[in-house]
Amino acid sequence: MSDETVHDHTPLDTQDSGASEVQDAAPEEAAPEAVAAPPRERRTAMGLVRAMFHLAIERSYARVGLVGLGFALVFLTIAGRLVAMAAFPQVDNGDNRVAAAATTAIRPDIVDRNGEILATDIRTVSVFAEPKNIYDKDEAVELLTAVLPELNATDLRAKLSTKKGFVWVKREITPKQQVEVHRLGIPGIGFLPDHKRVYPNGTAAAHILGVTNLDNIGIAGIEKYIDNTGLKDLNSLGFVAKATDLRPVQLSIDLRAQFALRDELAWGVDHFKAKAAAGMILDVTTGEVIALASLPDFDPNNPAEANNPDRINRMNVGVYEMGSTFKAMTLAMALDSGKYNVNSTFDTRGGVLTWGRQKIHEYHGTNRTITMPEVFTHSSNIGSAKMALGIGVPGHKAFLKKMGLTDRMRTELPESAEPIVPSRWTEINTITIAFGHGLAVAPLQAAAAVGAITNGGNLIVPTFLKTTEEEALKKATRVLKPETSEAMRFIMRLNAVEGSAKKASIPLYYVGGKTGTAEKVIHGRYVKNRLFTTFMAAAPMNNPKYLFVTIMDEPQGLPESGGYATAAWNSGVVTGRVIERVAPIIGLPPQFDPPVKPFPLMVKLGAYHATMLDGR
After folding, report:
1. What's the rounded Cα separation, in Å, for the pair 490 and 513?
2. Is 345 helix (H, G, I), strand (E, B) or coil?
3. Is 554 left (phi over 0), alpha (psi -120 to 50) or beta?
4. Which of 163, 183, 547, 561 would bridge 569 by S-S if both were Cys, CB 3.0 to 4.6 A apart?
5. Is the dihedral of CA 491, 495, 500, 505 positive or negative?
6. 220 phi/psi in degrees, rounded to 5
7. Residue 4 to residues 1, 8, 16, 18: CA-CA distances in angstroms?
8. CB-based contacts of 442: which residues, under 8 Å, 6+ apart?
């Protein structure tokens, strides 16, 4: 066993030595026979690899220094650029394509109280140009104006001749136009995704909704209000990727009532040949504006129409002397003061009240002593003036301020008007303001005051957002005693039965109201044949829910009215038509059985004709 072992080792040693000699002598013959590199060869290869990556310190200084210098130059260049940008910021002229695309804001849907879409976004594209990449600008202008004929060739050529890197060619094009522009194949012309605001109902609620600009930023109405509540910041910070990321904004508007109101106003303008008209429906228990229209109006899909000065929101932006509708404020003030009650009387004999050099005349004079309800039903200027004088100038001013009539009223609509208040308020001002002349207010704030008179005495600032009665009462201000409100509801109902509000007294709805006719001030003087008429009606007067308001600017007398153009003959007629048409839509039920004892306090006090109104 031992000899065999020695025999095995000896040939191996000999073979190894022989193999080495053969390999040295003829390596080309030995290589094909080798299956794996011998240990010596492996050591030689590894040494070569290490040598390749071995960096002798004495030979590396130059290379490391060169690389370090390169990095230093790069970082210094970047740092210098950042400092320059911070010290000398460039004005964004829209040259950056990404920034230009980001200027189009994404907006939430606007819906009515029933969820119907009033405003929404649609995806579209806009055409841009990179003037530096357009070689033949004349040809580009010719081709682009051929497929986009609404472009002005001169303006487009000027845009393409600038040194800017980015200019808009046309915003919000149609898919068909996009295909046609694409087929032109003009280098330097491209498309960017965009959003377009659309209003599917056209002119409906235009003055409420407002408009947006080409960058989808709200510039009027509720659209501007939405931006002011933080939407613009959300868009600028990139938190909004699509419209569904935003909750729809729900308005108090009822689209059905809105269409009906505008339709009846348009009829009134045409029928009475008026210069303009406006109207609204107000929920007096919540302050919600159910409908509001002002004619002439505009289509928010074409924002340029809104620039016409004749298309203002007359309910919120216009300020007017409201005529005899202000007598509701005067009577409420007198009753709430405690100095007068529903049975107080006023001497109007002679038909003229002289105050200094001023003479106050009656329009529907009775030439006798009349009760407080009769002051309202006969629209007595003298009776109203005597009430206001009895309260005094300070008390009168304080009451009107409390009712929100001497300060600008703020709602969600950014547009509002400051009332025109006498700079020096004397007794003659109190006399004329008592019957609706000498103080100009926005009809919306006058409606809010009448709403407080009818709803039990709570002044609620009108809102265009859907809300509840509980939420509204938290923000309301108590301005009248409940007893005063009942007395005024009784008086307003009496006016619909035997006074100037008969035209709007639609059967089964227990309507009450007041007319108002004011002469317009032209060049500082009252003009007798240029009238501004108002009608305010609430229903049902035993428990008011809605206030209906109509104003007409310069309506004309008709043969059917005997040539009269006062409020009862035009604004009153339109208001009656609105109530009759809209009441079933907004859930105002008819009262087939007259209300039982609607004014118990008035019956108890023995008020003028109080028992007559039971069951009427």
Report:
1. 10
2. strand
3. left
4. 561
5. positive
6. -165, 160
7. 5, 6, 19, 21
8. 315, 316, 317, 318, 319, 320, 409, 416, 417, 419
Distance separating alpha carbons of residues 384 and 387, to the nearest angstrom: 5
What are the start-end ranges of the E strands in 211-327? Answer: 249-250, 276-283, 289-295, 320-321
Low-confidence winner among 142-151, 488-497, 604-613 (lowest mean pLDDT): 604-613
Helical pair 443-454 and 482-498, crossing angle rounded to 10 deg:
110
> What DSSP string runs through 235-267?
HHTT--SSGGGSPPEEBS--HHHHHHHHHHHHH
Residue 579 neighbours by CB under 8 Å, 6+ apart: 504, 506, 509, 511, 537, 539, 548
Q: What are the structure tokens assigned to 16, written together? A: 């190894």
Pairing of β 352-355 and β 345-347: unpaired
Q: Are 125 and 265 in contact (CB under 8 A)?
A: no
What is the 8-class DSSP label of residue 338? S
DSSP letter for 326, please: G
- Residue 160 and residue 131 in contact, taking contact as beta carbons nearer than 8 Å: yes
Q: Are 313 and 413 in contact (CB under 8 A)?
A: yes
Angle CA 124–126–132, to nearest 5: 160
CB-based contact 425:393 (threshold 8 Å): yes
Over residues 282-335, the pLDDT tens digits come to: 999 999 999 999 999 999 999 889 889 899 999 999 999 999 999 999 999 999
DSSP strand pairing (358-361 vs 352-355):
antiparallel
Known active-site residue 324: yes
Q: What is the DSSP string of 55-84?
A: --HHHHHHHHHHHHHHHHHHHHHHHHHHHH
User: Omega before 584 cis (within 30°)?
Assistant: no
> pTM of the full predicted structure?
0.80
In the numeric block, which tokens belong to residue 335?
Answer: 């009753």
Who's near 373: CB < 8 A, 6+ residues apart? 342, 490, 491, 494, 607, 608, 609
Sign for the CA dihedral angle at 420, 423, 425, 429 comes to negative
Q: Is it true that the peptide bond before 309 is cis, omega within 30 degrees of 0?
A: no
> Residue 143's beta-bridge partner residues?
none
Buried b / exposed e along 438-447 (16+ C-beta atoms within 10 A): bbbbbbbbbb
User: Are 118 and 251 spatial neighbours (Cβ–Cβ below 8 Å)?
Assistant: yes
Treating both helix axes as pointing N-terminal to C-terminal, what angle do 427-434 and 393-402 enclose, rounded to 10 degrees? Answer: 50
Cα angle value 97/235/224 (rounded, 5°): 115
Cβ–Cβ under 8 Å, residues 117 and 209: no
Q: Tell me the CA distances in angstroms from 278 to 6, 13, 480, one per residue in order.
A: 125, 119, 28
**Nearest CA-CA partner of 279 in 15, 475, 573:** 573
Q: Which one is catalytic: 324, 379, 485, 500? A: 324
Tens of pLDDT, residues 565-614: 999 999 999 999 999 999 999 999 999 988 988 999 999 999 988 887 76
367 neighbors 351 (Cβ within 8 angstroms)? yes
